[in-house]
Each structure stands twice: as C-alpha cells, then as structure tokens.
Design a protein that fits this description.
The complex is a heterodimer of chains A (503) and B (319).
Chain A (H helix, E strand, L loop, with lengths): L1 H18 L25 E2 L1 E3 L2 E3 L6 E5 L6 E6 L3 H17 L6 H17 L1 H12 L3 H22 L12 E3 L2 E5 L5 H14 L3 E5 L6 H12 L7 E3 L4 H9 L5 E5 L2 H11 L5 E5 L5 E4 L5 H13 L11 E5 L3 H12 L20 H17 L3 E3 L14 E3 L7 H4 L6 E7 L2 H9 L3 E2 L1 E5 L3 H10 L4 E4 L14 E2 L2 E2 L4 H5 L3 E3 L1
Helix pairs in contact in A: 2-8, 3-5, 4-5, 5-6, 10-11
Chain B lengths: L3 E5 L3 E5 L6 H11 L6 H13 L1 E4 L7 H12 L4 H8 L12 E4 L4 H7 L6 E5 L10 H13 L4 E5 L2 H6 L2 H15 L3 E5 L2 H4 L2 H14 L3 E3 L11 H18 L4 E3 L7 H14 L12 E3 L2 H14 L12
Chain lengths: 503, 319
C-alpha cells in the first residue's frame, strides 16, 4: 500500500516537473544603489548666527565638520569662546526686552507657523543635510526627523496664543534668555524640541548645536532670516565643550536646557547650580524592551529592531536591553537574527539603507571598546556578517546573549547598534529587571494581553512607556526621564511648562 | 486565544497554532517595503521576474471562449512585434518571458488548454464554487475534477469562510484535503479570501490550516471582495509560510491576487518576499501575482528601462 503510494507520488512529481519550464530559477535581487539626489548648498565657512546675522567668531578659530560616511570635510565652523557666547547672550537679551516678550502670543505664533511651513517646504534639503552631516539613513531623516521638526514648530506655534490656559487659573510669563545645548544624534529634531516651545512662551534663545552636527542648525538660522524672525530671538553659536561651558557659566542666562550624556549633564548641573538658572536635563538611558510569551512575536521582533537599530542605536531612549520571557527566547532570537540579517548597512544617502554611519570616529571607538569589554565578560556574542563600506564609520548590528544585570553591555549606555539580551520567568521578575538600572527614560512592553500591559506599565520607573511599539515620537506627547535620565519634559503641554514662570 | 486542533487523515489530531498578530506593527512593517527604491538593473531584473510570476486572469460572468483565447494569445506573446523590434535595438534587452499561468473559470479551461498547448504556460482554474464557496463539498470536488480533466494544471480553490467564522475549522480543513485529493497532479492554491476574514489573526490561522491540509500555494483573494490583496495581509501569510517551512521543511508558495495594478507595487511585493522568505521564494514556482492589468504596466516599465523613454500606454495591446 505504502509502496504503491510512493510510486504514484514519484510519477506525479515527474509529470509536474515536465510541465514546469522554469523550475528553480530564482531572481537574484540585489538592490542597486538609489542615492537621494537633492543638492544642498553648504558654505565653505560658517560664522555664528548672532543678532540675525552670521558673524565671524571673536576667537578667530574654526574647526571642521565632516561627513561620517566618508570622513570628508563638509565645512569650517566657528570655534566660539566666551566672548562669542557673551555677544550672543547680549543679542538675545536685547531681543527679549525690546521686542519678543512685547509681542502678543498670536504674533509670536505667526512667526513659528511661518518657520514650520518653511521647514516643510525645504524638508528634502534639510533631510539630505542632516544625513550628510550626521550619518543617519536618508529614509529616517526624510520620514522621521524632519517631519517631526515641522510638527514641533506647528504644535508649539499653537501654544503661543493659548498660554493663559497652560496652567489652569494661573498667568504665566517667559523666563528670559534660554541657553540650549543639544546632542548630535537628532540634531535638528533636538533643536526643534528646544527652540519651538521656548519661542512660543516668549523667551529668546542661544543654542549650541553639537560640534559634530551643526550644519542643520546653521541652515535653520537661514530659515529664521527667511521667516523675518526679529533679530536676536534665535542665536546659534558653534563650538565644543568649552563653548557650552561658557554658556552654562554666563550670568545673564536664565535657563539651561540640555540634552546629552549623563556625565556632561551632571557637570552642567553642578556648574549651573553656582548661578541662578533653571535647568532641564534630558540625558542617557538603558531602556528595557520586555517581550512576554503572549506577544505577537513577529511584530515584537520588529519592535526590537526599531528599538535598538533605529538611528544606529544613537537614541537616548533606545531599547538597548531586551528582556524575553524564557519560554519564547529561542523563537524570538531565531526570528530576531533572521531579521537582523535583512538590515542594510551602508551609504546613508542610499534610500535603501536601514543602518547608516556611526556619527563620529570617537563614538565608533567607544562602541568598539564597550563591545570588546562585553566579549571579555561573556555571553554569546553574535554580529551580522555584512560587507561594510571601507571608508567612514560603520558598525554591523550585534547582540549579546544571557547578560546579567551587572554586565557592561546590560549596564552601560553603548549608544550604538548593540543589543543586550536577558531572560525572565514572571512579570514581577521582568519589572524588577527593567527597573534595575540607574536610568529611567523609556521602556517597551510586548503582550497581546491588555491587562498585563497596564499592570506592568504602572510598575516601571520610566518616563516613556510604549506598548506593542517602540521609538514612536509625537510633538503632543511629553518626553523625559526618571533617575539619571534627567528631569523636565519636552513635547506636549509639559514641554512648554519649563519655559515659563508661573505667577 | 487558543490553539485549534483538527484531525488530519493518517496523522490523527494536529494543532493549528493560534499565533497572535499585532495589526498596527504588521501594517507598519509592510509599509516599510513601500519605501524600498529599486532602480536601474535591479529594477529591470525585478520587472522581468515579475512577468514570469503573473497569473494572467479573467474571471467574469461574461467570459467567452473568444475572450479567453485572446487572453491566451497575450500570455504567449505579451509584446506586439513592432515594439519588440524597437526594444531589440538596445543592448540590455532580453526576450520578454512568458507569464506563469492563465487563470480562468472551469468552463473556460478547455479553450485555455487548447490555446496554450505547448507553450509551457500553466492553466489555472478557479473551482470549488468560486468565489463564495457556499456549495456542498461533493459539488466542489466534482467542480475540481472536471476542471482537471479539461486540462487545468493548477486549481485555485476558495475556503468556506462561513464555516471558518463559525469555528468549524475541521470542515474547512476537510474540504481542502478532499480538494487536494481531487486535484491529482494539479497544483493547489488555497484562496483564504482575506477581505472576508478581516483580522490578521484569522488570516494567520487560515494560512496554517490550509498549509497543513495540503495547499501548494496560499492565496489572498478571489478579486471579488474588497479589499483584495494588501501588503500587510500578504506579509502575515509570508511569515506563516516562513514558520511552516522552519517547522516542516516544506516550501509553500504565495499568491497575492487583486489590487496589484502597477510595477511599483509589484516590486514592493518582491522586496517583501525577498526580505521575509529570501531569494528562494523569488520564483514562479513559489510566488505568483494574480493580476491582469499589471502585465501591461510591467511591459511599459521594461520598455522604459530598456530604451530610456516611455511609450504612450495604448501601444501595449489590450488583451
């Protein structure tokens, strides 16, 4: 009986084969380079943007900003000293007193709406520049960064004439001159998070972009000119740590808003404490992405990838600690590895690139050092085998299995495409492990069981909690952390509050 | 959600895992493939491959032998001779391949079989009381047997969605098993009609049920219900195929049908297959497009890639 069946089957097979002409011919599907072709004008040399004009630095010094994807110089930028900072603060003070704080909210709102519209009109140009200077994939700067930048200006423009309703029953007034120091991972988005609410509330600003990624901020200065923003309302000074320190130390700055590493944040907090300044800090993180056995596994894998490999892992709220319920560990890891192999690492301007260039040589070295340390400490290390570009700063996505809470990869903020994986058995254990960190910025929960999601979320010490998604941002939603991840919130109504005095 | 179990002939009770799908995240992942930008030689390769994957379809109440024969003519020679000559002048031109199959109603199978004889093009027939499937199983089986007898080499069956929604998974399963048996040497594509299943959880469950019951291909839609194929639904089915392959070693084919009208969409589907199941599935043996107007757009884009310019649309024949 069985024999007969097999015979019949073979016969059928050969017959079927003879009908198929193209058996086993498959498409070799390599995606040819698809480079974004929008041209951007970059000047050879940029001064500071002070009082509505570009001015040469008093220091007479400049530094280079480079494209991290090929190491080539893009432009020379002013290396500003305390005299330059002073000039900028004076311009901001003058604009605050004589003009900006005197305008009605709706007038201020008009300027912000205008800026938002110009950002939309010039969005492709800004996206390309962001990618050139910072190394992030054009797909992300085009579809995430710049649209969010515009949204933040639109959203906060709406607050400008509604400040009477910001704190129920209370009047608010602007703080004055705000010093703002932003990082290199989301250069223009961080600028928007800082400048848009500050201006809406009637403050003027002196912004220092990260020295690695100042070009979009300088392009934004051009947009301020184009929008006819009163001179001195926005001032942008370029430079490195010393420039930032001069801003923090300046006596006539009323507030410092900082986004960056926890180490620098602590330093700023100490120094700012010596003067009369308000502070908001958005610092590092080591956020947990918790996958329960009852999660939608294929989508959870997407969320893990979005959590840690978005923007090369240069994300303060990156889901860098994956906690998996042990019963589904093998399944999740098998699927995750398969998915990681599909991540296209390469030229940031290629529209098909998923993971671009590491932002700087220094950051690449930091990632390599931490990975080396992790390898020493143990746990299976697995990295995607892919051909990386020979020039520029690139690092293939990788993960470390079975990390204990004390291991470097599970503890330290790597700020790169490096995932720490641990397991848990019960919800309580997941919560305890997720909270076992000196940070408290974000967390992700993956479960199809709504009651469990809410129970876990209520017990996590993190400023942002995503359920069945990760790394989703919106101008209407507050963002900020607990513990060493900082204080103060950005975005939403909460994001305007740190820029007002409540009467 | 609970796993479903069915009795399988020769194997006893088997489990059909109920694997939850998060709709929002699945939509988002599917959407990410629409951002792929396929250019130059990759685009040309994909266009050529897509032609070979087309099941050129006519499923109208008004279908006639004449209509079917003319469609088969188009399947045999997709490009008018003059246009072909024009493209041949260019060095990157390769002969335009034939489509995978012509898909028709059972009554039209004899005409298609005659018109396609010796062409290597498969003759696909919808059967099993297509498109609703609301007829007794013996009629469905005889429907299939007749189509095969008339020369169908592939059968596109519909599942009983009523039974599925009712929770009568065994009935759905048994029907597929019986139809598979009736197919004999013909390949079986099982249409889930995802536009009537609505949730991705049900799409996933139905996919697994069909694969366990003996489907060679799983297919999204009849084309008679809106929405027909969508990228997220196809993604959910591709992932089911992936998991089934991991578990059993069997490679099941995928056929999105309906709604894929242009080359750009088709290429995005190919990217999705490529990045979900890999290149192994990028063959007409394991991936098909159920479409009709798609073919002309593929030809139009090939003409553009080969010659560097667009021809006006009407130049490609109607059938």
């Amino acid at each position: 009986m069985t024999k007969k069946k097999t015979q019949k089957k073979t016969k059928e097979k050969t017959k079927a084969k003879s009908q198929k002409k193209n058996k086993s011919k498959t498409l070799k599907f390599n995606y040819a380079p698809a480079l974004e072709s929008t041209k951007v004008e970059i000047l050879e040399k940029y001064g500071n943007f002070i009082g509505g004009e570009f001015v040469a630095p008093k220091t007479g010094k400049y530094f280079d900003t480079v494209n991290p994807a090929d190491g080539k110089k893009l432009a020379s930028l002013a290396l500003s000293g305390s005299a330059d900072v002073d000039l900028a603060v004076k311009a901001a003070r003058k604009a605050f007193k004589s003009e900006w704080s005197q305008l009605t909210g709706s007038e201020r709102g008009k300027f912000l709406f205008r800026i938002a519209r110009i950002i939309q009109e010039r969005s492709r140009e800004l996206a390309v520049l962001e990618t050139l200077d910072g190394g992030k994939p054009i797909k992300e700067s085009r579809d995430v960064d710049i649209p969010l930048v515009a949204q933040h200006f639109f959203y906060n423009a709406g607050w400008a004439d509604k400040l009477d309703y910001l704190v129920p029953g209370k009047k608010v007034k602007p703080i004055g001159v705000c010093g703002q120091i932003i990082p290199w991972n989301f250069p223009m988005l961080m600028l928007a998070w800082k400048i848009a609410p500050a201006l809406a509330a009637g403050n003027t600003v002196v912004l220092k972009p990260a020295e690695q990624t100042s070009l979009t901020a300088l392009k934004f200065a051009e947009i301020c000119q184009e929008a006819g923003l009163p001179k001195g309302v926005v001032n942008i000074i370029t430079g490195a740590g010393e420039t930032g320190a001069a801003l923090v130390d300046h006596k006539d700055v009323n507030k410092i808003a900082f986004t960056g590493s926890t180490d620098i944040g602590k330093l700023i907090a100490r120094n700012a404490g010596k003067t009369n300044k308000k502070l908001t800090m958005e610092l590092g993180g080591k956020s947990a992405n918790i996958v329960f056995a009852d999660a939608a596994i294929d989508q959870a894998v997407e969320g893990i990838v979005a959590g840690i490999f978005f923007n090369q892992g240069h994300v303060c709220c990156a889901g860098s600690r994956l906690l998996i319920e042990e019963s589904v560990k093998d399944l999740v890891i098998k699927k995750l590895k398969a998915r990681m192999k599909q991540i296209r690492v390469g030229a940031p301007l290629d529209k098909n690139t998923d993971l671009g260039a590491i932002n700087s040589k220094e950051q690449l070295k930091k990632i390599r050092d931490l990975v080396k340390q992790g390898q020493k400490e143990g746990g299976e290390f697995w990295q995607v085998e892919t051909v990386l570009p020979t020039r520029g700063n690139f690092f293939a996505p990788c993960l470390f299995m079975d990390q204990s809470g004390s291991s470097t990869i599970a503890r330290e903020e790597v700020f790169g495409p490096v995932l720490s994986v641990s397991t848990f058995r019960t919800p309580d254990e997941a919560i305890a492990k997720a909270n076992d960190t000196n940070y408290g910025l974000a967390a992700g929960i993956w479960s199809e069981k709504g009651s469990k999601v809410h129970m876990v979320a209520s017990k996590l010490k993190a400023g942002i909690i995503w359920a069945n998604t990760y790394n989703k941002f919106d101008a209407t939603s507050p963002f900020g952390g607990f513990k060493e991840s900082g204080y103060g919130r950005e975005g939403g109504r909460h994001g305007v509050l740190p820029y007002v005095e409540v009467e | 959600m609970f796993d479903v179990s069915v009795r399988k002939p020769g194997e006893g009770k088997i489990i059909i895992p109920n694997f939850p799908i998060d709709m929002i995240a699945a939509d988002e992942r599917a959407g990410s493939f629409t951002k792929r930008s396929i250019k130059k030689e990759s685009k040309l390769d994909a266009l050529y491959a897509a032609i070979e994957m087309v099941d050129l379809t006519t499923l109208e109440g008004m279908d006639t032998p004449g209509k079917v024969k003319q469609l088969c003519g188009k399947a045999r020679q997709a490009v008018p001779f003059g246009i072909q000559k024009e493209m041949e002048k260019f060095s990157n031109f390769r002969p335009i391949p034939k489509v995978a199959a012509v898909c028709v109603y059972p009554n039209m199978v004899p005409y298609a079989a005659e018109a396609l004889e010796g062409s290597g093009i498969q003759i696909a027939s919808v059967a099993t009381a297509f498109p609703a499937g609301q007829l007794p199983i013996d009629i469905k089986v005889s429907d299939v047997k007749r189509a095969v007898k008339f020369g169908a080499t592939e059968i596109d069956m519909v599942i009983d969605r009523g039974a599925f929604h009712q929770g009568h998974y065994q009935k759905v399963f048994d029907e597929i098993v019986k139809v598979k048996e009736a197919c004999g040497k013909a390949h079986l594509k099982v249409i889930l009609e995802t536009g009537e299943l609505k949730t991705y959880d049900k799409v996933r469950l139905a996919s697994w049920l069909a694969m366990e019951a003996g489907a060679d291909f799983i297919k999204t839609s009849t084309g008679k219900v809106s929405p027909a194929a969508t990228m997220p639904v196809t993604l959910v089915m591709l992932q089911a195929i992936q998991d089934y392959y991991e578990m059993t070693g069997k490679k099941i084919g995928m056929k999105p049908a309906g709604g894929i009208k242009n080359s750009k969409q088709a290429i995005h589907y190919l990217c999705m297959v490529n990045e979900t199941l890999g290149e192994d599935w990028l063959t007409p043996d394991l991936f098909r497009f159920g479409a009709s107007s798609l073919l002309n757009d593929l030809l139009k884009q090939i003409f553009k890639q080969v010659t560097g310019r667009y021809y006006y649309d009407d130049i490609f024949s109607l059938d």
